[in-house]
Amino acid sequence: MNTHLQWIRELHAINAIPQPEQGVREALSDMDVIMRQAFLMTGGSEVFRALQSGSMEKILLGLTDLAYAALEGLALQGADVQEQPVAWQHDGYVLSLMRIVSDKINLCSSGRAEHYSGVYCLCRHLTSSFLNADFDKALQVLHTSKLEKHDNPPDLSDCLYE
Question: Is 153 exposed, middle or buried (0-12, 13-18, 19+ CB in 10 A)?
Answer without folding.
Answer: middle
